[in-house]
Each structure stands twice: as structure tokens, then as C-alpha cells.
Specification:
It is a single chain. The protein has about 375 residues and is mainly α. It has two domains: about 1-140 and about 205-384, no CATH class; about 145-195, no CATH class. The protein has helices spanning about 1-25, 30-45, 50-60, 65-110, 115-140, 145-160, 165-180, 185-195, 215-230, 235-250, 255-265, 275-315, 315-345, 350-365, 370-380. Helix 5 (about 115-140) runs antiparallel to helix 15 (about 370-380), helix 6 packs parallel to helix 8 (about 185-195) and helix 9 runs parallel beside helix 12 (about 275-315). The model is unreliable at about 185-210 (pLDDT under 50).
Length: about 375
């Protein structure tokens, strides 16, 4: 018994150390976070196989909330059970939330955000390199047949044409499941996928709400609602926040909201720590704590429930085919994000050189956290 307890304790410490470090150094948004986690838990530590990792990525895309945070929670659960679930998520969230809280305090005190443009100039090429290599590594596992390759290509096309991310994912899973049951040919599979994903779907809108005076309880319930229903990127989060906090309730100005989104983008860890910034602006430290708790709490619940179902799904032939299609579509979305990142992150030869150096460093197995920090430092000297 003592040995088993010691083993569980060791695993918990490993989970806490990894996700505490990632929460402090994982810049670049969800795609970069997924790439860094793949490098750490599949490539370096071998806690998971690539297939298990891809299944978790696919599962996080099917539930609302912050995808990279939910992936961290999934990994913690797989490594150390329910305690690992709580520890992984908390250690990934809390460093970013603490940094955001500090920036919010300075923002309220001095009325402006710190200047980080040169730091981001150096970080963005490194993040782009990390994401591109992760897509390449994961593709070698996820694309196991011609049909899945066709499906992934169709998903890229649908995403580039403006299809909603959730529709792309569900279309990929359903198409693969139908192909497995009907022995659909590759050409029919691509037609089926485009038919299911080709129509753009508008992002979900916040349900109408009456104008309400500010209170901490209302703040908590608002962010709890967002964490329970929001699919998509930080830009979807922006739409949710603007609809209620700016347009309906007038708790924030447009300028304050854009500053809050900017803080979520340039701090490490979850982009959803934007909620911490908003909470501090509206309700001080208690508001920051309640907003952070509200937006992240549903993720722990959803992952705990889906984590019980995921192994059973993989054992079912049809459900396994659905996961294969979902993984291929998820990879396609990451590829589109990689292209979008590269277009903005590599504006000149200096940035391209930083990206190439990052690729070399990753091939030499230099830890991605050091590459991110080194890129930020280089940006101070190379930024035009």
C-alpha cells in the first residue's frame, strides 16, 4: 500500500511540475499549447501514445470550454487519476491567472498595458515552428489511410472556406463513421464531408439578458455560463464578452474589452484568463477570483465525464472510426491555424531566421520553453 501511495504521489508531483511550468511559459494560444503538451507527454515522457493523445485532442474539441486547458486536465487524469485531473488543470491555470492579475492591477493603477511588441516579435516565429512540427508529427499517426487523408484535405478546404470549427469536427467524425460502416470509397467520403461541412455556421450568440446592475454573483454566473457553452477560439470569447458586458450591461467599454483580450493573448497559459483581467476591472481581487473560477470550473466537470467515456468509445468499431475522423479534422484545423500563424508571425527575414532556428532547436530536442523565452529575448534585439 505504501508503495502504491508513493507511486501516486510521484505521479502527482510530475503532473504538477510539468503543468506548472507550461502555465508559466506556454505562450501562443491553444494550438501552441497542444503542440508543447504533445512534445512533453508523448515525445519526452512517453506518458501517452500518439493515438491516445489524439483521442484526447478530439474529445476536447467536442466539449465547450478552453481546449488546451481541457487537454491538460485530460492528461492529468490519465496520469494520476482524479487528483491528477485537479492538479494538472490548477497548475496550468493559476500561473497565468496570477500574471494576468498583476497586469490588471498595473492597468488600473497606471491606465495602460505594458509594451510587449518586441517580445512578441521574437516569440511568434518560435510558436509557429512548434505548431508546424507538432502537426507534422501528429499527422504521421492520425492519417493512416487514403480515406483519412482525403477527409483531412476536405476539412482544410471547409475550414478555409469559413465553416465553423465544430461543424468541421462533427462532419469529419460522422463521415469517417459512415465510411467505416458502408465501406464508402475515398471519393464518396470527400463528397460526404464537404456536404456536411460546406455551409458556414455562425458562432453561437449569448442568450438575451436583461440589463442588470453589477454584482459579484452576477459576474460569477456570467463567466460560469460562458465556460459551459462556449466553443471556438478567443475571438468567439470576444463576441460573447462584447454582447453582454459592453452592449447589454455597459459594465465595460470597447477599449477595456480589447485590452482584456490582448492580455489573454500575450500572457502564457490559457487565453481564457482574459476573465481574470475582466473580473479585476469590475470587482477587484474577489471579482478576478470569481470570474476565473466561473469560466474554468465547467472544464473540470466536462473532462471528468468525458474521461470515463473515451476508452469505451475507442473499443467500439464505429465510435473508434468516429474518433479517427475527428482526429483527422482536428489536425486539419491545426494546419489551418499554422498557416494563419505563419502569415503574421514571419513578416521579414529576421523573423523567418528565428523560426528556422527554432525548428533546428526542436529537432535537436531543445525544450520548447527555452526556445520561447530565447525567441522573446532575441526579439528585443532583432525587432525593426
Amino acid at each position: 500500500m505504501a508503495s502504491a501511495d508513493g507511486d501516486r504521489g510521484t505521479r502527482l508531483r510530475e503532473v504538477a511540475a510539468l503543468f506548472g511550468r507550461l502555465g508559466t511559459t506556454a505562450f501562443g494560444g491553444p494550438a501552441a499549447h497542444v503542440s508543447m503538451m504533445e512534445e512533453e507527454v508523448v515525445g519526452r515522457r512517453r506518458w501517452l501514445s500518439r493515438e491516445q493523445f489524439l483521442d484526447m485532442v478530439g474529445a476536447t474539441n467536442l466539449i465547450p470550454g478552453p481546449n488546451s486547458t481541457e487537454l491538460a486536465i485530460h492528461i492529468g487524469y490519465a496520469r494520476a487519476g482524479m487528483r491528477g485531473l485537479v492538479v494538472a488543470g490548477s497548475c496550468f491555470i493559476l500561473p497565468a491567472a496570477a500574471m494576468t492579475l498583476g497586469i490588471a492591477w498595473a492597468y488600473v493603477r497606471f491606465g495602460a498595458l505594458p509594451q510587449v511588441s518586441t517580445f512578441l516579435y521574437g516569440v511568434k516565429p518560435v510558436i509557429t515552428a512548434i505548431v508546424l512540427l507538432a502537426v507534422w508529427r501528429l499527422a504521421r499517426t492520425a492519417i493512416r489511410s487514403v480515406a483519412l487523408a482525403v477527409l483531412a484535405a476536405a476539412a482544410v478546404a471547409a475550414s478555409a472556406l469559413g465553416a465553423h470549427e465544430l461543424l468541421v469536427l462533427l462532419g469529419g467524425g460522422v463521415a469517417a463513421m459512415l465510411a467505416a460502416s458502408r465501406k464508402t470509397a475515398g471519393r464518396d467520403l470527400s463528397g460526404l464531408l464537404i456536404g456536411k461541412m460546406g455551409v458556414p455556421v455562425a458562432s453561437a450568440a449569448v442568450a438575451g439578458a436583461a440589463v442588470a446592475p453589477f454584482s459579484l454573483a452576477a459576474l460569477f454566473l456570467f463567466f460560469l455560463k460562458i465556460g459551459s457553452v462556449l466553443f471556438g477560439s478567443g475571438y468567439v470569447l470576444l463576441a460573447f464578452l462584447r454582447a453582454d458586458l459592453v452592449e447589454r450591461w455597459h459594465w465595460l467599454t470597447n477599449a477595456q474589452l480589447l485590452d482584456a483580450i490582448a492580455v489573454g493573448q500575450f500572457t502564457p497559459g490559457p487565453v481564457f484568463c482574459t476573465a481574470t483581467f475582466v473580473g479585476y476591472l469590475l470587482g477587484g481581487t474577489p471579482g478576478a477570483a470569481l470570474a476565473t473560477l466561473g469560466i474554468f470550473l465547467p472544464a473540470f466537470v466536462f473532462v471528468a465525464l468525458s474521461g470515463l467515456v473515451l476508452p469505451r468509445l475507442r473499443r467500439s468499431p464505429r465510435a473508434g472510426a468516429f474518433l479517427d475522423g475527428l482526429n483527422a479534422a482536428s489536425l486539419a484545423l491545426m494546419a489551418v491555424v499554422s498557416w494563419q500563424l505563419a502569415r503574421t508571425a514571419l513578416p521579414d527575414w529576421r523573423a523567418a531566421a528565428l523560426g528556422a532556428a527554432a525548428v533546428l532547436g526542436l529537432r535537436l530536442r531543445v525544450n520548447s520553453a527555452w526556445l520561447v523565452l530565447g525567441g522573446g529575448l532575441a526579439g528585443h534585439f532583432l525587432a525593426p
